[in-house]
Amino acid sequence: MVADKYIALTFDDGPDSTTGKLLAILEELRVCATFFLCGERVRSFSNEAKAIADAGHEIGNHSYNHVYMNELDEEAIYSNFERAEAVIIEVAGKKPPFIRVPYVSYSEAVVKVAMTMNMPVIGCDVIGYDWEEAVDETKIVENVLASAKDGGIILLHEPYEKTRAALPVIVNTLRLRGYAIMSVGELVNQKQTTLQAGVCYNAL
Ligand SMILES: [Zn+2]
Fold this sequence. Notes:
Layout: E1 5-14, H1 19-29, E2 34-37, H2 39-44, H3 46-54, E3 58-61, H4 74-92, H5 108-116, E4 121-122, E5 126-127, H6 137-147, E6 152-157, H7 161-176, E7 179-182, H8 184-190, E8 200-201
Parallel strand pairs: 1-2, 1-6, 1-7, 2-3, 4-8, 5-6
Helix pairs in contact: 1-7, 4-5, 6-7
């Protein structure tokens, strides 16, 4: 089937002890995704972070320690993202091309920092709600499929068994509906979009 719609797949909050399981599923599905990693976790799970990069996935900056950015001043926000960037470069060997703000806690200061760091801010608009306890595997599939759209950015999280279980159903169903599933960077290329520093993108 030829794809005529494009959607990005993103995983937040890793790496994790379960990263290898997720990578195996993505390999089987032949999907390249974007992983928004936290610097502190990249330190703790450096083999997993390296495995994400080695498998050809894209890595974004999801802060050092997943704090509410709207509670921090500009300097603290800057050093938090910078610290994460340094660890990601050290471990994964690549500078993350964009940031994602924990808890969607945007503020004017966050935007200023993103400008200073020359970083676009990647949001999401196809949300699995997999972090909610009441949301099971079936519901994750429903949530994603109900809001999937051309140019959309799917948000899932790394550590959950139910998310891994939902993934093949999500990917296979979207493909049947004419979607190609890719990383954020690939979606940007596909849509011939030029991302701008300090701008928050929920979809492309
Ligand atoms: Zn997060």
